[in-house]
Amino acid sequence: xxxxxxxxxxxxxxxxxxxxxxxxxxxxxxxxxxxxxxxxxxxxxxxxxxxxxxxxxxxxxxxxxxxxxxxxxxxxxxxxxxxxxxxxxxxxxxxxxxxxxxxxxxxxxxxxxxxxxxxxxxxxxxxxxxxxxxxxxxxxxxxxxxxxxxxxxxxxxxxxxxxxxxxxxxxxxxxxxxxxxxxxxxxxxxxxxxxxxxxxxxxxxxxxxxxxxxxxxxxxxxxxxxxxxxxxxxxxxxxxxxxxxxxxxxxxxxxxxxxxxxxxxxxxxxxxxxxxxxxxxxxxxxxxxxxxxxxxxxxxxxxxxxxxxxxxxxxxxxxxxxxxxxxxxxxxxxxxxxxxxxxxxxxxxxxxxxxxxxxxxxxxxxxxxxxxxxxxxxxxxxxxxxxxxxxxxxxxxxxxxxxxxxxxxxxxxxxxxxxxxxxxxxxxxxxxxxxxxxxxxxxxxxxxxxxxxxxxxxxxxxxxxxxxxxxxxxxxxxxxxxxxxxxxxx
Amino acid sequence: xxxxxxxxxxxxxxxxxxxxxxxxxxxxxxxxxxxxxxxxxxxxxxxxxxxxxxxxxxxxxxxxxxxxxxxxxxxxxxxxxxxxxxxxxxxxxxxxxxxxxxxxxxxxxxxxxxxxxxxxxxxxxxxxxxxxxxxxxxxxxxxxxxxxxxxxxxxxxxxxxxxxxxxxxxxxxxxxxxxxxxxxxxxxxxxxxxxxxxxxxxxxxxxxxxxxxxxxxxxxxxxxxxxxxxxxxxxxxxxxxxxxxxxxxxxxxxxxxxxxxxxxxxxxxxxxxxxxxxxxxxxxxxxxxxxxxxxxxxxxxxxxxxxxxxxxxxxxxxxxxxxxxxxxxxxxxxxxxxxxxxxxxxxxxxxxxxxxxxxxxxxxxxxxxxxxxxxxxxxxxxxxxxxxxxxxxxxxxxxxxxxxxxxxxxxxxxxxxxxxxxxxxxxxxxxxxxxxxxxxxxxx
Lengths: 490, 444
What we know:
The complex is a heterodimer. Chain A is an alpha+beta fold. Chain A has three domains: 1-216 and 437-446, Uridine Diphospho-n-acetylenolpyruvylglucosamine Reductase, domain 3 (2-Layer Sandwich); 219-322, Alpha-Beta Plaits (2-Layer Sandwich); 328-428, 2-Layer Sandwich (Alpha-Beta Plaits), CATH 3.30.70.2740. Chain A contains 17 helices and 18 strands. Chain A is globular. By secondary structure, chain B is of the alpha/beta class. The longest helix of chain B has 18 residues, at 252-269. Chain B is globular. Chains A and B meet through α2 and α12 of A and α2, α4 and α5 of B.
């Protein structure tokens, strides 16, 4: 626990009404969107200025407590779950769009601005911010930058980092750093911007972000193709790529997901369908028409049982509903839903999906897989009940095998959710030692006291997990956590 | 722990609600299954009006569910903050529409409130008042008479003038009162009225309490529209309040008594459908089957009753209605009542009807599905918060440029009209039945 002295100082910095430490509030900030993980912070603070954040970091270094940055708390890897002896820094009220520069096609935003609202705003000006994580209605741009979030349009448009031109960031030391600008070209110095993007709140706290915008595509066309097996769908993905067509969206559902969707949304899907591909092309009208018919032909040639091409936007929306309700449909089957994001090169799509199904069967668990076929980013979704400890153990072993396989296939353990706490243990076992070493060194250098979101992504040194236990009470608490692993993650 | 296996056993399980665990703490009578269905993804935060007001997680559906879980697990007792947050919730159920996992948040928050009520020590004034007020019509009549007198002699104007000088609680709240109808529709209408075109069948209508005291015109219009479309309309004079006000305040016992009476009365009309023009009432009456599930005498009858309940717009959309020849001459928009769009998922039907009545004059309302702050008696209890939500609503209405606002619930009618009046806005806030009947009338 942080001391009363620290609490007093926090109240001085942030003001009484922006400092919370009631049990109810601590409970309310003990979780994020990640299944199974939770831990209470000692306090929550709401900053009103960059200076507040700076002073907080200095105090954290002096008094040795952890600072956990948080936006809307919709993360899926435990990135904003508090650790021992920690204070949550709530950024969600910093939600303004500061500037929309239509001459340079850029926007300055505050980190708490909601992604979906920002997209609606820029689209009303005929502009486009493509990264669209599934939680875009509530997730924050600051969180997106911290996690380097992806989404459905990754294949053609890339991910968050491709749209970050610069930012203002408070470092662990409390220093404020500005990096980047409105230049499309800028090679002055190391590319430290990309070190901070995706650092999951472990290297700095974004206070202002400069985003790149592009013109909004003129039109789009949606197509749905049905296959007997995942192999046909995978073949289509390869053939589309080989034909040098770049769809804006190339999504798939496997059989388990199709069955769930049909039971939930009654869209009239054949439950025996092995896989569904959803393709959307966008761009100038003439090009879209050409691409759509080319893709239709490729689907048929690659063994699609049937193909449906939307005639207009309304029909397109209808066709998209199967993919859109995939997660909802799976989430309703069992109380606990573990959404993962193992990713492989797109040529390995069929191999990976087959492996997931075999592994699920082997461990006697339910997994439905859907996701971004175009960029190989799969969402194997484990359906379980957190109170059934035996099943949770089986699901964990299954996912361990799945991640291992993904890495063996040249893929990664996470395509867009981040490592956080949830996938930390796979980092060190599955990645090159020099890479891990460089990460650790970077963290140690930028945050020597390990006060910024400690214990996420990698463990640095023992001191990084907070102060070592001294009193009998602290030691007992630690021992009980070790016996109850769902509460302990270090 | 005394937890139910599935579903909330509401008050019917008062014993469960009162039960204590070995540690001596109370435990919520909410099923574990309903709570664990929440995967805390946070999508509900984007549509929650109270979260928008405070920006605090504990004022969000996800935060409240976690607090309920903590009380259920015995991590925390029922605290003042817990009670405040459960009652601070509007129960608008916008979160249920947004939830990908289908969490029945409304059931959860209502069970939590009931739990707080049942376990509360001391004198329960609000509950006692509500019970006596809605049990019979006499309480309502007396209050309506006093209020009509208050408006007629001009005292209201004095009070509203005072409220601007001394904006204290009770005076400010006086601004929420809409102009009361002169008479209850139920006193004007005979028990049975003939259809005005070739007969298609028989329906019975609920005139409601708030609706009839404040918007008797909407009731008369509802009956007119039904007759116009070939329905013989029964207006059972013995009907009582639907019970929703009591139910939502945690008093299901009174709600059950009222439900049984209504089942009796409506069965006797021999009608095929029970048409209800108030969103809150229709939502509650569709759930009589759940309310009376444990009553051997009434469970089957309640089931039959619930399937016969149709919300007004849902009913005329489903059975078909004659489209008026004329269209609205001024701009029109549609505000979605929470108990229609979120609780009953009735959204496309009334919208389609309104669009049809308005033609080119239809204007889409931004955040049409956001609560206006009325929420039963919420605007009285949480005046300041409700006022902020009302401002947000009025702002959106202003931006869309509509002169007429159509909606389907007396609470919304009163709240939006009061807000417009206070802001000096020239705005007509009417029920869908009134809108439709006005156009029918132009044909005569």
